[in-house]
Amino acid sequence: MTELLLPAGVFLIALLYSSVGHAGASGYIAVMSLLSLAPAFIKPSALVLNILVASIASLQFWRAGHFRWALFWPFALAAVPLAFVGGTIDLPRQAFQWLLGAVLLYSAWRLMVQARQPLEVKPPHLPLALLAGGFIGLLSGLTGTGGGIFLTPLLLFAGWAAPKQAAAVSALFILLNSASGLSGWLVSGQSLPGGLLPLLLAAGAGGLVGSWLGARQLAPAGIKRFLALVLLIAGAKLLLS
């Protein structure tokens, strides 16, 4: 049963998350945990799937003309080193997860309310972008995610990017953070688990479909609603785990 349910779950998560420029790490972890897979399998598998789906989403949104380098680099420059720092810190997880879960659920609610409201886009000031990127990178390392669930809502709420631009920037942001996390895993002497091919095929198919829909078919209001659903899933996972 696991051999059927796991690829199906991975496909659906990759499709949903990639439509908003995300890669699905929190969703993969949730599905694998529900199926009682070992932690030694879950973490590296989620990172590998994240890298694949984020790569596909980055390419799709870039080819559709939504990526903005000037918006991307300040956040990534500050985030990547602090994501490494965050990965070395061990906080009291229950209170921390509840706080983040509540923030994500509030963000989901705001996105649903504001889905059809017009957005006036203005670029962030460089110091503010660096500060926000560093903080998100730290949160990324602390939570073991790619950071997109924090970056995309911030870009939208602050008016720094339109929905598809936010998705494009978040996809590459997640790719870099996930690659950094996997490198740390391998450098520490760990290895990749076997049996990943069916999951990679499922994630690749879901990522292709979802990112194509997000980059070329979904209207901005649709992107916001899909993102709200992603944040709702991630927030519920943090509160219930």
Lay out the secondary structure:
Blueprint: H1 2-18, H2 25-34, H3 39-63, H4 69-87, H5 93-113, H6 126-143, H7 148-157, H8 163-187, H9 197-217, H10 220-240
Strand segment count: 0
Average pLDDT rating: 85
Rg, nearest Å? 16 Å
- Strand/helix succession: HHHHHHHHHH
Beta-strand content: under 5%
Kindly state the percentage of residues in helix: over 70%
Which consecutive residue ranges, at least 5 long each, have pLDDT under 50? none
Name the shape in a single word.
globular
Query: How many domains?
Result: 1
Q: How many angstroms separate the termini?
A: 23 Å
Main beta sheet strand tally, sense and closure: none
- Figure out the total of helices: 10
Structural class label: mainly alpha
Task: Describe the structure in your own words.
InterPro entries: TM_pro_TauE-like, TSUP/Inactive_protease-like. The protein has 241 residues and is an all-alpha fold. It has one domain. The relative contact order is 0.23. The mean pLDDT is 85.
Descriptors for this entry?
241 residues; mainly alpha; 78% helix; transmembrane; TSUP/Inactive_protease-like; cell membrane; TM_pro_TauE-like
